[in-house]
Amino acid sequence: MSTQNEQIIRPARNIAGTLRLRGDKSISHRYAMLGALAAGTTRLQNFSTGADCASTLACVGALGARVNRTESAIEIDGCGGRFRAPDAPLDCGNSGSTMRMLSGVLAGQQFSCELFGDESLSQRPMKRVVEPLERMGAKVETSDGGKPPLRITGGKLKGIEYYTPVASAQVKSLVLFAGLQAEGETIVEEPLRTRDHSELALRAFGAELHRSKNRISILGGQKLKAIEAFVPGDISSAAFFLCAAALFPGSSLVVEAVGLNPTRSALLDVLAAMGLRSSVVTLEEHHGELIGTLKVEAGELKGVSVGGAQSAMLIDELPVLAAIAPFTKGGMEIRDAKELRVKESDRIAAVTENLRSMGAEVNEHEDGWSIPGGQNLHGAEVDSHGDHRIAMAFAVAALRAEGETRIMGANTASISFGEFWDTLNELADQ
Ligand code: S3P
């Protein structure tokens, strides 16, 4: 079926089965960073198997937190607030979350160190890291144009009030992580609500913080205590199979132990409006995170418009929504998503290029797409652009195309979802 770094996808009849996903990437990063900073041993079950979270574990290991993999969990012996200077620059791989959020932690440490990444990460904007951290008293140097590598010289920080210029959970998080180590109070206000895993994780590790609408405040000098946690299944990984199910009336899928944090589950509302019936059959809360079992059944696929605050909430799911848009009745308009241009690839350009290779009509905008519905696509050779979400989005689109689709650079799916291709094989009736 596949050679080294490509996958061939054939048309499917439907999607059916039960899906149990490895831990959420966003939550895994945060638990690993805060566990490394806390006092005591943090024990994390169902930690993400993605390469991005492995980058975070390697970085916190190099900073002096002992990371131990047991059969059932990842254990992290925290440093009790004080890391040691690493012997070499920290390799963040492909992971923007690692580089940005760890910068906030490092800003409060009494040493200087460098963070670098792969070719894609080396092109991603870091001014959004520099600005708040320098205002708090750290020194952050970048290469020309505000790109990685970053050199961070941490030290004594002071609390600030910061309005994030872009709706970014990573930026909000790094300010909170630095604020935890600063003198006085740090307030961060975001233009639109973004995922709140850092707020929930900080509370789980024993910190107090306050939220009022889009303003969050944290008092510096609080100490974190180790936790035991189960990381909810990654809803952004589930998204590929939910969208795949939506493509075939009659599909039926159960997703077990998946994260249903309301700041992450906007896709369910959008897919409901598009005709996917879903019900939450169990629901529990763990360290503030909602975890549930979801049952979905597909009907006729309608198109909808996505924009404004919803686009920020759905930022990681927009490529796969766009990839299924040509198959909707009525088409889709997706706007206010300019941030997609500075992700692991320019996701707006990559989706346009790949949909067009498959014969689709697509109108590209600076901040999204308008994609007519009722189109028939044909198989083609499409490129992941080294971007995990592009590889997986087009594996989904390919299930409804005529003929075979060849996904080039398919291994990149393992950045967030190591088991993706095997899972697709299991659930797609081809
Ligand atoms: C993430 C936030 C988002 C998202 C990324 C993970 C996080 O990035 O796209 O995949 O875990 O906080 P931005 O903060 O750049 O929007």
From the structure above, extract its key features.
430 residues; alpha+beta; UDP-n-acetylglucosamine1-carboxyvinyl-transferase, Chain; 2 domains; 5-stranded mixed β-sheet; 4-stranded mixed β-sheet; 13 helices; 25 strands; 30% helix; binds shikimate-3-phosphate
Explain what you see.
The chain has a 5-stranded mixed β-sheet. A 4-stranded mixed β-sheet has the order 1-2-24-23. The model has no long low-confidence stretch (mean pLDDT 97). It has 430 residues and is α+β, with helices and mostly antiparallel strands. The chain has 2 domains: 6-23 and 232-429, UDP-n-acetylglucosamine1-carboxyvinyl-transferase, Chain (Alpha-beta prism); 25-229, Enolpyruvate transferase domain (UDP-n-acetylglucosamine1-carboxyvinyl-transferase, Chain, Alpha-beta prism), CATH 3.65.10. The protein is 30% helix and 27% strand. The structure holds shikimate-3-phosphate. Shikimate-3-phosphate is lined by residues 26, 97, 168-170, 173, 195, 315-316, 339.
CATH topology description of the largest domain:
UDP-n-acetylglucosamine1-carboxyvinyl-transferase, Chain
Biggest sheet: strands side by side, in what order? 17-18-16-3-25
Q: Please indicate the percent range of residues in DSSP E strands (runs of 2 or more).
A: 25-35%
| Estimated radius of gyration | 21 Å
The biggest beta sheet reads: 5 strands, mixed
Mean pLDDT: 97
CATH architecture of the largest domain: Alpha-beta prism
Q: What coarse outline follows from CA principal-axis ratios? A: globular
Low-confidence segments, given as residue ranges, are none
The count of strands amounts to: 25
State the end-to-end distance: 12 Å
Taken together, the total number of domains comes to 2
CATH class value of the largest domain = Alpha Beta
Number of helices: 13
Helix content percent band: 25-40%
